[in-house]
Specification:
Strand content: under 5%
Number of strands: 0
Shape: elongated
CATH class of one domain: Mainly Alpha
Order of helices and strands: HHHHHHHHHHHHHH
Helix content: over 70%
Distance between the termini: 55 Å
Number of helices: 14
CATH topology of one domain: Serine Threonine Protein Phosphatase 5, Tetratricopeptide repeat
Structural class: mainly alpha
Amino acid sequence: MKKLIVVLGLALAACARQPGAPDLGNVQSNAPDTEVQQRARAFTDLAAAYFQRGQFKVALDELRKAILADPKFSPAYNVYGLVYMELAEDKLAEDYFRHAIDLDRSNSEAHNDYGRFLCTRGRYDDGLAQFGAALRNPLYAAPEQAMANAGSCAEMKGDLALAEANLMRALKLQPDNPQTLIKLAALNFRLDKLAEAQRLLTRHGELAPASAASLWLGVRLERKAGDRAQEAAYGLQLRKHFPDSEEARALLAGRYE
């Protein structure tokens, strides 16, 4: 077991999360593990690390080992769901998410990830219900994740008031989260609250490197505000650093809305 933990540490160091990678949540638990659960957790953590690197086949191999070690280890089935979600195997993804939750109703990470899956498939109310289930667990270590995801889901649904409320709750819990800042900035832009959108975008820039999304938001903000020089500066950075992005293509095509 000691050797397995050493290998896990090396693999996780090599497979550090890249910016923009899907958020897996935290597969750790406060409850003490049995030896069987420790082995399952080690393989599951390895699988999560490989998943974050896009090495899906290796991730699936590690998950099979996790299930062999402990067929009732809920977090392993959740990561299975994430892998199949990325592979667009929706039936398998949903089956694994649901099984993870059936095994452990208090697995807030599984509720959160299943909620993201449902929302990206257009099942907004079902997704919001899963975020609510995640947040009802008082021991959930990262409630701001479910709140932010609920905000994004509500925005996709078209309920902008609910989206704003959830994103503001998430930001209150974690004021320096760049992902929440940019989501809330974009929503404020959509609500025509330009000053607040600019404030949030500036704060995002203080905490994280510019992304295609943040630069594109900057272009559109300054265009609406009438600052052509700053609009051009954002546009130049977008074309230079993210020339193949969807945002850069929208800029070149003049699709500002």
